[in-house]
UniProtKB/TrEMBL annotation:
The lineage of its organism: Bacteria, Pseudomonadati, Acidobacteriota, Holophagae, Holophagales. It comes from the Bacteria. This is ABC transporter ATP-binding protein. InterPro entries: AAA+_ATPase, ABC_transporter-like_ATP-bd, ABC_transporter-like_CS, ABC_transporter_ATP-binding, P-loop_NTPase. CDD domains: ABC_DR_subfamily_A.
Length: 247
C-alpha cells in the first residue's frame, strides 16, 4: 500500500491551473524532495495533501486513507509545516506546542518533555515567556518544525524547512529528517536549495506550471545531465533574459 497516492490531482484558482493532473505514488519510508520554480505549484500541492486546501478534482490517499472521506484520521497521522507556518503569534513557544500537542491528545508532561528535547536539539534558546510574535523568522521556522513532529507522525510534509535557517541548525534538521526516514516515516519536503535535496532526498520530483516534469532517484533523473541544477534548468528553465537596460 503506497504511503501517498495522488490521482489526477488538480487545483484551479479561477483561470489559473496551479496543479495540473498530478499523478504520484510514494512507498512507505520514501523521502521525496519536491522541486520547482516560484509558482510551480509545490505549496498548493502540499496544502492539498495536508487537508488545508480542497482540490478542484482528483483524489488523495494518505497512508491508505482517502483524505476527502476521512480527513481527521489522516491529520492524526501526519505532521505538516505549511509555507506560512501558521503559528499563533500571541502565544509563547512552549504554550503553542502545548496547544498543538493537546490537539493530538498528548498529555502535558509528554508534550513538555518532547518540546524540551526538540528545543534543545534545535538550539531554540528563548525565555519561556517570549511571544512567538517576537521570535526571529528562523526561530519561528524551528517552532513550526517542532509542531510538525511533536506527535510522532508517520508521514511528514515540510514546505521549505531550510529557508532562513542557519547552517548549524540546518545540519541538525537534516540529521533529524534522516533518522525519521530510518525509522520508517515517509517524508516530503519542498526546497529551492538543490544541494540539500540532492544530498538528503533519495527521490526527487520536479514540478513546472503544475505538471510533473520529472520523478525518480537522482541517478535516474540525472541521466545525461551533469548535475541536478543542469537537469532542473533543462526541464523548467525559461529562455535566457537579456541584460538590464539601465545597468
Ligand atoms: N489562493 C490562491 N489564489 C489564487 N492563486 C493562487 C493561490 N494560491 C496559489 N496561487 C497561484 O498558484 C500558483 C502556484 O502557487 P504555489 O504557491 O503553489 O507555488 P510554489 O511552487 O509553492 O512557489 P514558491 O516556490 O514561490 O513558493 C501561483 O501562480 C500562485 O499565484
Amino acid at each position: 500500500m503506497p504511503a501517498l497516492e495522488l490521482v489526477s490531482l488538480t487545483k484551479r484558482f479561477g483561470d489559473k491551473t496551479a496543479v495540473d493532473d498530478l499523478n504520484l505514488s510514494l512507498e512507505p519510508g520514501a523521502f521525496l524532495g519536491l522541486l520547482g520554480r516560484n509558482g510551480a505549484g509545490k505549496s498548493t500541492t502540499l496544502k492539498m495533501v495536508t487537508g488545508l486546501l480542497n482540490p478542484t478534482s482528483g483524489s488523495i490517499r494518505v497512508l491508505g486513507l482517502d483524505l476527502a472521506a476521512d480527513p481527521l484520521a489522516v491529520k492524526r497521522q501526519i505532521g505538516a509545516m505549511p509555507e506560512d507556518m501558521a503559528l499563533l503569534d500571541m502565544l509563547s513557544g512552549p504554550q503553542y506546542l502545548r496547544f498543538v500537542g493537546r490537539m493530538y491528545g498528548l498529555p502535558d508532561a509528554l508534550i513538555d518533555s518532547r518540546r524540551e528535547e526538540l528545543f534543545d536539539k534545535l538550539d531554540l534558546a528563548v525565555t519561556p515567556k517570549t511571544l512567538l510574535a517576537d521570535y526571529s523568522f528562523g526561530m519561528k521556522k524551528k517552532v513550526a518544525l517542532c509542531a510538525a513532529l511533536i506527535h510522532a507522525p508517520r508521514m511528514v510534509f515540510l514546505d521549505e524547512p531550510f529557508e532562513g535557517i542557519d547552517p548549524v541548525t540546518s545540519r541538525t534538521i537534516k540529521d533529524i529528517l534522516h533518522s525519521l526516514q530510518q525509522s520508517g516515516v515517509t517524508l516530503v519536503l519542498t526546497s529551492h536549495i538543490l544541494e540539500v535535496v540532492e544530498r538528503l532526498c533519495p527521490l526527487i520530483a520536479i514540478l513546472d506550471e503544475g505538471q510533473l516534469k520529472g520523478f525518480g532517484t537522482l541517478e535516474e533523473l540525472r541521466r545525461g545531465s551533469e548535475s541536478l541544477e543542469q537537469l532542473f534548468v533543462d526541464l523548467v528553465g525559461g529562455a535566457q533574459k537579456g541584460e538590464l537596460s539601465w545597468l
